[in-house]
Specification:
Helix content is about 25%, strand content about 20%. Helix 3 packs parallel to helix 16. The strands form 5 sheets. The chain has an 8-stranded mixed β-sheet, with helices on one face. It is an alpha/beta fold and about 575 residues long.
Protein backbone atom coordinates (compact mmCIF):
# COMPACT_ATOMS: atom_id res chain seq x y z
CA UNK A 1 0.00 0.00 0.00
CA UNK A 2 1.43 3.39 -0.99
CA UNK A 3 0.19 6.97 -1.09
CA UNK A 4 -0.47 8.78 -4.37
CA UNK A 5 -2.15 11.98 -5.51
CA UNK A 6 -3.79 13.14 -8.72
CA UNK A 7 -2.02 16.10 -10.34
CA UNK A 8 -4.46 16.76 -13.16
CA UNK A 9 -5.83 20.26 -13.83
CA UNK A 10 -8.38 20.09 -11.02
CA UNK A 11 -8.56 22.16 -7.83
CA UNK A 12 -9.24 19.19 -5.55
CA UNK A 13 -5.75 17.57 -5.49
CA UNK A 14 -7.10 14.19 -4.39
CA UNK A 15 -4.81 12.02 -2.29
CA UNK A 16 -5.32 8.28 -2.16
CA UNK A 17 -3.92 4.96 -1.06
CA UNK A 18 -3.00 2.55 -3.83
CA UNK A 19 -3.00 -1.22 -3.48
CA UNK A 20 -1.38 -3.14 -6.34
CA UNK A 21 -2.08 -6.84 -6.88
CA UNK A 22 -1.30 -8.87 -10.00
CA UNK A 23 -0.59 -5.69 -11.92
CA UNK A 24 -3.97 -4.15 -11.04
CA UNK A 25 -4.33 -0.98 -8.99
CA UNK A 26 -7.04 -0.25 -6.45
CA UNK A 27 -7.43 3.40 -5.35
CA UNK A 28 -8.96 4.54 -2.06
CA UNK A 29 -9.45 8.25 -1.36
CA UNK A 30 -7.85 9.81 1.72
CA UNK A 31 -9.77 12.30 3.88
CA UNK A 32 -9.04 16.01 4.21
CA UNK A 33 -10.34 18.37 6.90
CA UNK A 34 -13.18 19.42 4.57
CA UNK A 35 -13.66 16.03 2.91
CA UNK A 36 -14.11 13.15 5.33
CA UNK A 37 -14.41 10.43 4.27
CA UNK A 38 -12.19 10.93 1.25
CA UNK A 39 -13.15 9.67 -2.18
CA UNK A 40 -11.71 9.31 -5.67
CA UNK A 41 -13.77 10.98 -8.39
CA UNK A 42 -14.91 9.23 -11.56
CA UNK A 43 -12.55 11.29 -13.71
CA UNK A 44 -9.53 9.72 -12.03
CA UNK A 45 -10.68 6.28 -13.11
CA UNK A 46 -10.75 7.57 -16.69
CA UNK A 47 -7.17 8.81 -16.35
CA UNK A 48 -6.02 5.43 -15.06
CA UNK A 49 -7.73 3.59 -17.91
CA UNK A 50 -6.31 5.99 -20.52
CA UNK A 51 -2.76 6.30 -19.27
CA UNK A 52 -1.46 3.25 -17.41
CA UNK A 53 0.34 0.93 -19.86
CA UNK A 54 -1.76 2.11 -22.80
CA UNK A 55 0.59 0.56 -25.36
CA UNK A 56 1.46 3.74 -27.25
CA UNK A 57 4.98 4.16 -28.59
CA UNK A 58 7.07 7.15 -29.54
CA UNK A 59 7.30 7.84 -33.27
CA UNK A 60 8.84 10.11 -35.90
CA UNK A 61 7.33 11.03 -39.26
CA UNK A 62 9.95 10.73 -41.98
CA UNK A 63 9.78 10.93 -45.80
CA UNK A 64 9.70 7.12 -45.75
CA UNK A 65 6.73 7.01 -43.37
CA UNK A 66 6.13 6.92 -39.65
CA UNK A 67 8.87 5.18 -37.68
CA UNK A 68 7.96 3.78 -34.25
CA UNK A 69 10.60 3.22 -31.57
CA UNK A 70 10.75 0.01 -29.59
CA UNK A 71 12.26 1.58 -26.47
CA UNK A 72 12.69 4.85 -24.62
CA UNK A 73 16.46 5.15 -25.12
CA UNK A 74 16.05 4.74 -28.87
CA UNK A 75 13.28 7.37 -28.90
CA UNK A 76 15.33 9.88 -26.89
CA UNK A 77 18.35 9.42 -29.16
CA UNK A 78 16.17 9.95 -32.24
CA UNK A 79 14.57 13.03 -30.67
CA UNK A 80 18.01 14.51 -29.98
CA UNK A 81 18.90 14.01 -33.65
CA UNK A 82 15.60 15.66 -34.63
CA UNK A 83 16.24 18.67 -32.37
CA UNK A 84 19.94 19.23 -32.99
CA UNK A 85 19.57 21.07 -36.33
CA UNK A 86 16.80 23.21 -34.79
CA UNK A 87 18.23 24.02 -31.37
CA UNK A 88 19.54 27.45 -32.42
CA UNK A 89 16.49 28.26 -34.56
CA UNK A 90 13.35 30.12 -33.50
CA UNK A 91 11.28 27.78 -31.30
CA UNK A 92 7.88 28.25 -29.65
CA UNK A 93 7.36 26.28 -26.42
CA UNK A 94 3.99 25.54 -24.79
CA UNK A 95 3.46 23.37 -21.73
CA UNK A 96 -0.14 22.65 -20.85
CA UNK A 97 -1.92 21.48 -17.75
CA UNK A 98 -1.92 17.78 -18.56
CA UNK A 99 -0.18 17.50 -15.21
CA UNK A 100 0.24 20.49 -12.92
CA UNK A 101 2.75 18.97 -10.52
CA UNK A 102 6.11 20.64 -9.88
CA UNK A 103 8.47 18.34 -11.75
CA UNK A 104 6.84 19.09 -15.10
CA UNK A 105 8.68 22.41 -14.82
CA UNK A 106 12.02 20.79 -15.67
CA UNK A 107 10.86 20.75 -19.29
CA UNK A 108 10.70 24.56 -19.00
CA UNK A 109 14.28 24.71 -17.72
CA UNK A 110 15.53 22.50 -20.56
CA UNK A 111 13.93 24.47 -23.40
CA UNK A 112 14.61 27.87 -21.82
CA UNK A 113 18.31 27.04 -22.16
CA UNK A 114 18.01 27.15 -25.97
CA UNK A 115 19.07 30.58 -27.29
CA UNK A 116 15.94 31.50 -29.29
CA UNK A 117 13.16 29.56 -27.58
CA UNK A 118 10.01 31.57 -26.87
CA UNK A 119 7.42 30.73 -24.23
CA UNK A 120 3.73 31.62 -24.21
CA UNK A 121 2.40 34.62 -22.28
CA UNK A 122 -0.95 33.90 -20.65
CA UNK A 123 -3.16 30.87 -21.03
CA UNK A 124 -6.71 29.61 -21.50
CA UNK A 125 -7.40 28.51 -17.93
CA UNK A 126 -7.04 31.12 -15.18
CA UNK A 127 -4.71 33.85 -16.46
CA UNK A 128 -7.43 36.52 -16.61
CA UNK A 129 -8.65 35.79 -13.09
CA UNK A 130 -5.10 35.77 -11.73
CA UNK A 131 -4.46 39.17 -13.31
CA UNK A 132 -7.66 40.50 -11.74
CA UNK A 133 -6.74 39.40 -8.23
CA UNK A 134 -3.17 40.64 -8.55
CA UNK A 135 -4.41 44.02 -9.80
CA UNK A 136 -6.79 44.41 -6.85
CA UNK A 137 -4.85 42.74 -4.03
CA UNK A 138 -1.24 42.58 -5.19
CA UNK A 139 -1.22 38.85 -4.50
CA UNK A 140 -2.91 35.63 -5.59
CA UNK A 141 -4.22 34.29 -2.31
CA UNK A 142 -7.10 32.04 -1.26
CA UNK A 143 -8.39 31.80 2.31
CA UNK A 144 -8.40 28.44 4.05
CA UNK A 145 -11.51 26.66 2.76
CA UNK A 146 -12.79 26.02 6.29
CA UNK A 147 -13.46 29.74 6.82
CA UNK A 148 -16.66 29.01 4.88
CA UNK A 149 -17.93 27.70 8.20
CA UNK A 150 -17.92 31.32 9.42
CA UNK A 151 -20.27 32.43 6.62
CA UNK A 152 -24.06 32.58 6.74
CA UNK A 153 -24.45 32.76 2.96
CA UNK A 154 -22.21 31.40 0.19
CA UNK A 155 -22.59 32.88 -3.29
CA UNK A 156 -21.29 30.86 -6.25
CA UNK A 157 -20.60 32.89 -9.40
CA UNK A 158 -20.66 30.53 -12.39
CA UNK A 159 -19.14 27.78 -10.22
CA UNK A 160 -20.50 24.35 -11.11
CA UNK A 161 -18.61 22.54 -8.38
CA UNK A 162 -20.46 19.28 -9.06
CA UNK A 163 -18.55 19.02 -12.36
CA UNK A 164 -15.32 20.91 -11.70
CA UNK A 165 -14.58 20.40 -7.98
CA UNK A 166 -16.50 17.43 -6.55
CA UNK A 167 -14.83 17.65 -3.13
CA UNK A 168 -15.93 21.29 -2.83
CA UNK A 169 -19.43 20.24 -3.93
CA UNK A 170 -19.66 17.63 -1.17
CA UNK A 171 -18.34 20.16 1.37
CA UNK A 172 -20.91 22.76 0.27
CA UNK A 173 -23.69 20.22 0.75
CA UNK A 174 -22.38 19.48 4.25
CA UNK A 175 -22.36 23.20 5.05
CA UNK A 176 -25.85 23.52 3.64
CA UNK A 177 -27.09 20.79 5.99
CA UNK A 178 -25.58 22.82 8.85
CA UNK A 179 -27.70 25.81 7.88
CA UNK A 180 -25.51 27.72 5.41
CA UNK A 181 -27.49 29.37 2.61
CA UNK A 182 -26.15 28.60 -0.88
CA UNK A 183 -26.93 30.95 -3.79
CA UNK A 184 -25.86 29.94 -7.32
CA UNK A 185 -25.62 32.63 -10.01
CA UNK A 186 -25.42 30.96 -13.42
CA UNK A 187 -26.93 31.22 -16.92
CA UNK A 188 -27.38 27.43 -16.81
CA UNK A 189 -29.27 25.34 -14.29
CA UNK A 190 -26.38 23.04 -13.43
CA UNK A 191 -26.18 20.17 -10.97
CA UNK A 192 -24.78 22.67 -8.45
CA UNK A 193 -27.58 25.18 -9.11
CA UNK A 194 -30.17 22.45 -8.60
CA UNK A 195 -28.92 21.73 -5.08
CA UNK A 196 -28.52 25.41 -4.10
CA UNK A 197 -31.11 27.14 -1.95
CA UNK A 198 -31.66 29.58 -4.82
CA UNK A 199 -30.59 29.56 -8.46
CA UNK A 200 -30.28 33.10 -9.80
CA UNK A 201 -30.41 33.20 -13.59
CA UNK A 202 -28.16 35.74 -15.29
CA UNK A 203 -27.14 36.54 -18.85
CA UNK A 204 -23.59 35.44 -19.73
CA UNK A 205 -20.87 37.99 -19.07
CA UNK A 206 -23.04 40.12 -16.78
CA UNK A 207 -21.68 39.20 -13.33
CA UNK A 208 -19.77 42.48 -13.12
CA UNK A 209 -22.91 44.43 -13.95
CA UNK A 210 -24.78 42.59 -11.20
CA UNK A 211 -22.03 43.26 -8.64
CA UNK A 212 -22.03 46.96 -9.54
CA UNK A 213 -25.83 47.10 -9.28
CA UNK A 214 -25.73 45.52 -5.80
CA UNK A 215 -23.06 47.96 -4.60
CA UNK A 216 -25.05 50.89 -5.98
CA UNK A 217 -28.26 49.75 -4.32
CA UNK A 218 -26.39 49.31 -1.03
CA UNK A 219 -25.11 52.90 -1.29
CA UNK A 220 -21.49 51.75 -1.63
CA UNK A 221 -21.03 52.89 -5.23
CA UNK A 222 -22.26 55.99 -7.04
CA UNK A 223 -22.92 57.03 -10.62
CA UNK A 224 -24.74 53.91 -11.82
CA UNK A 225 -28.39 53.00 -12.44
CA UNK A 226 -28.88 49.81 -10.42
CA UNK A 227 -32.21 48.93 -12.03
CA UNK A 228 -30.85 49.35 -15.56
CA UNK A 229 -27.83 47.21 -14.70
CA UNK A 230 -30.00 44.52 -13.13
CA UNK A 231 -32.25 44.41 -16.16
CA UNK A 232 -29.29 44.31 -18.56
CA UNK A 233 -27.95 41.35 -16.56
CA UNK A 234 -31.29 39.56 -16.88
CA UNK A 235 -31.68 39.13 -13.11
CA UNK A 236 -35.26 39.40 -11.86
CA UNK A 237 -36.19 41.72 -9.01
CA UNK A 238 -36.96 38.94 -6.51
CA UNK A 239 -33.54 37.34 -6.96
CA UNK A 240 -31.86 40.74 -6.76
CA UNK A 241 -33.52 41.50 -3.43
CA UNK A 242 -32.54 38.06 -2.11
CA UNK A 243 -28.91 38.92 -2.84
CA UNK A 244 -29.28 42.33 -1.19
CA UNK A 245 -30.78 40.73 1.91
CA UNK A 246 -27.89 38.26 2.18
CA UNK A 247 -25.30 41.01 1.82
CA UNK A 248 -27.03 43.20 4.41
CA UNK A 249 -27.03 40.34 6.91
CA UNK A 250 -23.25 40.12 6.52
CA UNK A 251 -20.91 37.12 6.71
CA UNK A 252 -21.33 36.40 3.00
CA UNK A 253 -18.74 34.29 1.16
CA UNK A 254 -18.05 34.66 -2.56
CA UNK A 255 -16.65 31.87 -4.77
CA UNK A 256 -15.73 32.87 -8.33
CA UNK A 257 -15.99 30.24 -11.04
CA UNK A 258 -13.46 30.13 -13.86
CA UNK A 259 -16.14 30.58 -16.53
CA UNK A 260 -16.69 34.27 -15.77
CA UNK A 261 -13.15 35.24 -16.77
CA UNK A 262 -13.56 33.72 -20.25
CA UNK A 263 -15.56 36.65 -21.61
CA UNK A 264 -14.39 39.82 -23.35
CA UNK A 265 -14.91 41.64 -20.03
CA UNK A 266 -13.81 38.75 -17.79
CA UNK A 267 -11.13 40.61 -15.83
CA UNK A 268 -13.44 43.55 -15.20
CA UNK A 269 -16.23 41.23 -14.02
CA UNK A 270 -13.88 39.51 -11.57
CA UNK A 271 -12.73 42.86 -10.23
CA UNK A 272 -16.32 43.99 -9.61
CA UNK A 273 -16.99 40.79 -7.66
CA UNK A 274 -13.81 41.50 -5.68
CA UNK A 275 -15.07 45.02 -5.03
CA UNK A 276 -18.45 43.72 -3.88
CA UNK A 277 -16.80 41.30 -1.45
CA UNK A 278 -14.43 43.94 -0.05
CA UNK A 279 -17.00 46.71 0.38
CA UNK A 280 -19.48 44.39 2.10
CA UNK A 281 -16.89 43.06 4.55
CA UNK A 282 -16.20 39.74 2.84
CA UNK A 283 -12.62 40.05 1.59
CA UNK A 284 -11.52 37.19 3.86
CA UNK A 285 -14.40 35.09 2.53
CA UNK A 286 -13.55 35.64 -1.15
CA UNK A 287 -12.33 32.63 -3.16
CA UNK A 288 -10.75 32.21 -6.57
CA UNK A 289 -7.45 30.38 -6.30
CA UNK A 290 -3.72 30.47 -5.65
CA UNK A 291 -0.62 29.00 -7.30
CA UNK A 292 -0.20 25.24 -7.10
CA UNK A 293 3.57 25.68 -6.60
CA UNK A 294 3.36 28.46 -4.00
CA UNK A 295 5.17 26.41 -1.33
CA UNK A 296 8.39 26.08 -3.37
CA UNK A 297 10.89 28.19 -5.25
CA UNK A 298 10.42 28.18 -9.02
CA UNK A 299 12.63 25.82 -11.08
CA UNK A 300 14.42 28.80 -12.61
CA UNK A 301 13.40 28.75 -16.28
CA UNK A 302 13.92 32.15 -17.94
CA UNK A 303 12.69 32.54 -21.51
CA UNK A 304 14.04 35.56 -23.38
CA UNK A 305 10.89 36.18 -25.45
CA UNK A 306 7.17 35.47 -25.10
CA UNK A 307 4.27 35.24 -27.54
CA UNK A 308 0.75 36.19 -26.34
CA UNK A 309 -1.45 33.11 -26.18
CA UNK A 310 -4.06 34.51 -28.60
CA UNK A 311 -1.43 34.91 -31.32
CA UNK A 312 -0.12 31.33 -31.40
CA UNK A 313 -2.08 29.71 -34.25
CA UNK A 314 -1.61 32.62 -36.62
CA UNK A 315 2.12 32.79 -35.85
CA UNK A 316 2.44 29.07 -36.60
CA UNK A 317 0.40 29.40 -39.80
CA UNK A 318 2.60 32.32 -40.88
CA UNK A 319 5.71 30.19 -40.43
CA UNK A 320 7.10 32.59 -37.81
CA UNK A 321 8.73 29.69 -35.91
CA UNK A 322 11.02 26.91 -37.06
CA UNK A 323 9.72 24.48 -34.43
CA UNK A 324 6.73 24.22 -32.12
CA UNK A 325 7.21 22.23 -28.90
CA UNK A 326 4.00 21.03 -27.21
CA UNK A 327 4.27 19.44 -23.75
CA UNK A 328 1.16 17.82 -22.21
CA UNK A 329 -1.35 20.01 -24.04
CA UNK A 330 -3.99 19.43 -26.71
CA UNK A 331 -4.60 22.90 -28.17
CA UNK A 332 -5.92 21.52 -31.48
CA UNK A 333 -9.00 20.48 -29.49
CA UNK A 334 -9.07 22.64 -26.35
CA UNK A 335 -8.06 26.09 -27.64
CA UNK A 336 -10.33 28.35 -29.74
CA UNK A 337 -10.37 28.10 -33.53
CA UNK A 338 -9.36 24.49 -34.11
CA UNK A 339 -9.12 25.14 -37.85
CA UNK A 340 -6.46 27.83 -37.35
CA UNK A 341 -4.54 25.49 -35.04
CA UNK A 342 -4.60 22.69 -37.60
CA UNK A 343 -3.38 25.09 -40.29
CA UNK A 344 -0.58 26.30 -38.02
CA UNK A 345 0.52 22.80 -37.01
CA UNK A 346 0.57 21.65 -40.63
CA UNK A 347 2.89 24.56 -41.52
CA UNK A 348 5.33 24.35 -38.57
CA UNK A 349 7.42 21.30 -37.57
CA UNK A 350 5.98 20.07 -34.28
CA UNK A 351 7.20 18.03 -31.31
CA UNK A 352 4.51 16.65 -29.00
CA UNK A 353 5.35 15.07 -25.63
CA UNK A 354 2.32 13.36 -24.11
CA UNK A 355 0.90 10.21 -22.56
CA UNK A 356 -2.04 9.62 -24.90
CA UNK A 357 -2.98 10.17 -28.50
CA UNK A 358 -4.70 13.53 -29.16
CA UNK A 359 -5.84 15.82 -31.95
CA UNK A 360 -2.57 17.73 -31.52
CA UNK A 361 -0.46 14.56 -31.58
CA UNK A 362 -2.07 13.67 -34.92
CA UNK A 363 -0.35 16.74 -36.38
CA UNK A 364 3.06 16.07 -34.80
CA UNK A 365 6.27 15.36 -36.68
CA UNK A 366 7.75 13.74 -33.57
CA UNK A 367 5.72 12.21 -30.74
CA UNK A 368 7.51 11.29 -27.50
CA UNK A 369 5.45 8.93 -25.36
CA UNK A 370 5.81 9.41 -21.59
CA UNK A 371 4.05 7.70 -18.71
CA UNK A 372 2.29 10.79 -17.34
CA UNK A 373 1.51 11.37 -13.70
CA UNK A 374 1.42 7.65 -12.85
CA UNK A 375 5.11 7.34 -13.81
CA UNK A 376 6.45 10.40 -11.99
CA UNK A 377 7.68 11.19 -8.48
CA UNK A 378 6.21 14.60 -7.76
CA UNK A 379 4.73 17.14 -5.37
CA UNK A 380 2.13 19.88 -5.63
CA UNK A 381 -0.27 22.15 -3.80
CA UNK A 382 -3.95 22.54 -4.62
CA UNK A 383 -4.73 25.71 -6.54
CA UNK A 384 -7.94 26.19 -4.54
CA UNK A 385 -7.66 24.32 -1.24
CA UNK A 386 -4.84 24.88 1.32
CA UNK A 387 -3.21 21.44 1.19
CA UNK A 388 -0.22 19.89 -0.58
CA UNK A 389 0.89 16.32 -1.34
CA UNK A 390 3.91 14.36 -2.54
CA UNK A 391 4.10 10.94 -4.20
CA UNK A 392 6.36 8.24 -5.55
CA UNK A 393 5.82 6.88 -9.04
CA UNK A 394 3.29 4.11 -9.51
CA UNK A 395 4.50 2.67 -12.84
CA UNK A 396 7.91 2.10 -14.44
CA UNK A 397 7.19 3.93 -17.70
CA UNK A 398 9.34 6.87 -18.83
CA UNK A 399 8.48 9.92 -16.72
CA UNK A 400 8.51 13.50 -17.99
CA UNK A 401 11.26 14.39 -15.52
CA UNK A 402 13.43 11.47 -16.65
CA UNK A 403 12.72 12.25 -20.32
CA UNK A 404 13.84 15.86 -19.81
CA UNK A 405 17.01 14.69 -18.03
CA UNK A 406 17.88 12.13 -20.72
CA UNK A 407 17.18 14.55 -23.56
CA UNK A 408 19.29 17.27 -21.93
CA UNK A 409 22.19 14.82 -21.63
CA UNK A 410 21.81 13.75 -25.27
CA UNK A 411 21.87 17.41 -26.36
CA UNK A 412 24.79 18.27 -24.09
CA UNK A 413 22.71 20.73 -22.03
CA UNK A 414 23.36 20.92 -18.26
CA UNK A 415 20.16 20.18 -16.31
CA UNK A 416 20.30 19.91 -12.53
CA UNK A 417 17.06 18.55 -11.10
CA UNK A 418 16.68 19.59 -7.49
CA UNK A 419 14.88 17.65 -4.78
CA UNK A 420 11.73 18.93 -3.09
CA UNK A 421 13.64 19.50 0.16
CA UNK A 422 15.97 21.96 -1.60
CA UNK A 423 13.11 24.03 -2.99
CA UNK A 424 10.96 24.79 0.06
CA UNK A 425 9.97 28.46 0.25
CA UNK A 426 10.44 29.87 3.76
CA UNK A 427 9.13 33.42 3.34
CA UNK A 428 5.38 33.57 4.06
CA UNK A 429 3.21 35.05 1.30
CA UNK A 430 1.90 38.60 1.76
CA UNK A 431 -1.69 39.16 2.85
CA UNK A 432 -4.39 40.63 0.63
CA UNK A 433 -4.68 44.41 0.64
CA UNK A 434 -7.35 45.98 -1.54
CA UNK A 435 -5.78 48.82 -3.47
CA UNK A 436 -8.29 49.79 -6.16
CA UNK A 437 -9.69 53.29 -5.67
CA UNK A 438 -12.03 53.42 -8.67
CA UNK A 439 -13.06 50.91 -11.28
CA UNK A 440 -14.69 51.39 -14.70
CA UNK A 441 -17.55 49.09 -15.64
CA UNK A 442 -17.23 47.11 -18.87
CA UNK A 443 -20.48 45.62 -20.18
CA UNK A 444 -20.43 42.47 -22.32
CA UNK A 445 -20.84 42.81 -26.09
CA UNK A 446 -24.36 43.20 -27.43
CA UNK A 447 -25.76 40.05 -29.01
CA UNK A 448 -26.21 40.54 -32.78
CA UNK A 449 -29.74 40.06 -34.06
CA UNK A 450 -30.43 36.50 -35.17
CA UNK A 451 -27.54 35.05 -33.19
CA UNK A 452 -27.13 33.18 -29.90
CA UNK A 453 -24.25 33.27 -27.42
CA UNK A 454 -22.25 30.03 -27.28
CA UNK A 455 -21.12 28.60 -23.94
CA UNK A 456 -19.06 25.43 -23.55
CA UNK A 457 -19.21 23.68 -20.18
CA UNK A 458 -17.21 21.15 -18.18
CA UNK A 459 -18.74 17.69 -17.74
CA UNK A 460 -18.47 15.70 -14.51
CA UNK A 461 -17.18 12.58 -16.29
CA UNK A 462 -14.06 13.94 -18.00
CA UNK A 463 -11.48 16.73 -17.78
CA UNK A 464 -10.66 18.97 -20.74
CA UNK A 465 -10.29 16.59 -23.72
CA UNK A 466 -9.19 13.56 -21.68
CA UNK A 467 -11.83 11.01 -22.64
CA UNK A 468 -11.91 7.32 -23.44
CA UNK A 469 -12.97 6.29 -26.97
CA UNK A 470 -16.74 6.50 -27.29
CA UNK A 471 -17.32 8.68 -24.21
CA UNK A 472 -18.61 11.46 -26.46
CA UNK A 473 -21.62 9.36 -27.44
CA UNK A 474 -24.76 10.88 -25.94
CA UNK A 475 -22.95 14.15 -25.18
CA UNK A 476 -22.91 15.55 -28.74
CA UNK A 477 -25.78 17.92 -28.02
CA UNK A 478 -26.37 21.65 -27.92
CA UNK A 479 -28.79 22.98 -25.31
CA UNK A 480 -31.08 25.84 -26.26
CA UNK A 481 -34.12 27.48 -24.75
CA UNK A 482 -37.47 26.57 -26.38
CA UNK A 483 -38.16 30.29 -26.87
CA UNK A 484 -35.13 30.46 -29.18
CA UNK A 485 -36.08 27.24 -30.98
CA UNK A 486 -39.59 28.33 -32.02
CA UNK A 487 -38.67 31.05 -34.58
CA UNK A 488 -36.08 28.71 -36.10
CA UNK A 489 -38.55 25.78 -36.29
CA UNK A 490 -36.08 23.64 -34.37
CA UNK A 491 -37.39 20.48 -32.74
CA UNK A 492 -35.86 18.42 -29.96
CA UNK A 493 -33.45 15.94 -31.58
CA UNK A 494 -32.80 17.90 -34.78
CA UNK A 495 -29.23 17.94 -36.02
CA UNK A 496 -27.99 21.53 -36.08
CA UNK A 497 -25.14 23.22 -37.87
CA UNK A 498 -23.70 25.74 -35.40
CA UNK A 499 -21.98 28.47 -37.40
CA UNK A 500 -19.57 30.84 -35.67
CA UNK A 501 -17.07 33.43 -36.86
CA UNK A 502 -14.24 30.86 -36.95
CA UNK A 503 -16.04 27.80 -38.31
CA UNK A 504 -18.78 25.22 -37.92
CA UNK A 505 -19.69 22.11 -35.93
CA UNK A 506 -22.75 19.85 -35.88
CA UNK A 507 -24.63 18.74 -32.76
CA UNK A 508 -28.08 17.51 -31.79
CA UNK A 509 -30.67 19.96 -30.44
CA UNK A 510 -31.67 19.53 -26.80
CA UNK A 511 -34.48 21.92 -25.89
CA UNK A 512 -34.54 22.89 -22.21
CA UNK A 513 -35.56 25.72 -19.93
CA UNK A 514 -32.37 25.09 -17.95
CA UNK A 515 -30.55 27.70 -20.05
CA UNK A 516 -31.39 31.39 -20.33
CA UNK A 517 -32.83 32.62 -23.65
CA UNK A 518 -30.35 33.99 -26.13
CA UNK A 519 -27.76 31.37 -25.18
CA UNK A 520 -26.75 27.88 -26.30
CA UNK A 521 -24.49 25.49 -24.40
CA UNK A 522 -22.60 22.31 -25.26
CA UNK A 523 -20.01 20.14 -23.52
CA UNK A 524 -16.48 21.30 -24.20
CA UNK A 525 -13.50 19.65 -25.86
CA UNK A 526 -15.08 16.51 -27.29
CA UNK A 527 -15.75 15.44 -30.89
CA UNK A 528 -19.23 16.53 -31.88
CA UNK A 529 -21.26 14.86 -34.64
CA UNK A 530 -19.05 16.86 -36.95
CA UNK A 531 -16.11 18.96 -35.79
CA UNK A 532 -15.82 20.37 -32.27
CA UNK A 533 -17.30 23.35 -30.47
CA UNK A 534 -14.02 25.25 -30.57
CA UNK A 535 -14.24 25.20 -34.38
CA UNK A 536 -16.73 28.05 -34.08
CA UNK A 537 -14.89 30.17 -31.50
CA UNK A 538 -12.50 32.95 -32.47
CA UNK A 539 -9.05 33.02 -30.91
CA UNK A 540 -9.07 36.43 -29.21
CA UNK A 541 -7.92 37.80 -25.86
CA UNK A 542 -9.96 38.85 -22.86
CA UNK A 543 -9.72 42.37 -21.46
CA UNK A 544 -6.67 41.24 -19.46
CA UNK A 545 -4.83 40.39 -22.66
CA UNK A 546 -3.58 37.19 -21.04
CA UNK A 547 -6.60 34.91 -21.37
CA UNK A 548 -8.93 33.76 -24.14
CA UNK A 549 -12.51 34.98 -24.57
CA UNK A 550 -14.16 31.63 -25.29
CA UNK A 551 -17.63 32.75 -24.24
CA UNK A 552 -17.98 36.01 -26.17
CA UNK A 553 -18.75 34.16 -29.40
CA UNK A 554 -22.13 34.46 -31.12
CA UNK A 555 -23.37 31.75 -33.46
CA UNK A 556 -26.22 31.07 -35.85
CA UNK A 557 -28.13 27.77 -35.88
CA UNK A 558 -29.26 25.99 -39.04
CA UNK A 559 -31.07 22.68 -39.26
CA UNK A 560 -29.18 19.98 -41.12
CA UNK A 561 -31.30 18.74 -44.00
CA UNK A 562 -31.16 15.36 -45.71
CA UNK A 563 -29.55 16.99 -48.74
CA UNK A 564 -26.62 18.39 -46.71
Amino acid sequence: MRQFFCSKDCPDLCAMRVETRDGRHRFQGLPERWSDPGFVCGKFKVYAAREIANGLRSWHKTPEGRREFAGDQEAIAALARFLNPLRDKKILYLRGSGSLAYNMGWWDVLFASLPNCWSVAGGPCDATGCDADEADFGVLQNPDITVLEQADTIILYGKNAAATSPHLFVYLKQLQRRGKHILSIDPVRTATSQTADRHIRIRPGCDGLLACALLTELGLEQGHDSQALRERAGVDAEDFHALLAALRRGRTAHIKGFSIQRHDNGMNAYRWINRLAVKTGGMNLLFFGHASKRFWEKPGAVFRQQLPVAQIPQALANGDFDLYVNIAANPAMTYPDCNAWRAGLSRTPTLVVDTCHSATAEQADFFLKVGGMFAQDDFMGSYFFPHQHARKRLTDELSDMEAARLLAAALGIPLTIRDQTQLRRTVPPPARQYRTASLPLLPPPTRPEGSLQLLTASHHAYLNSQILPGMEQGLQVVRLNPADAVPLAIQHGDDLRICGPAGVFVAEALLTNDIVPGTVMCWKNIPMKQGAANNAILNRPTDAGSGLAYYSTFVELHKVSDSD
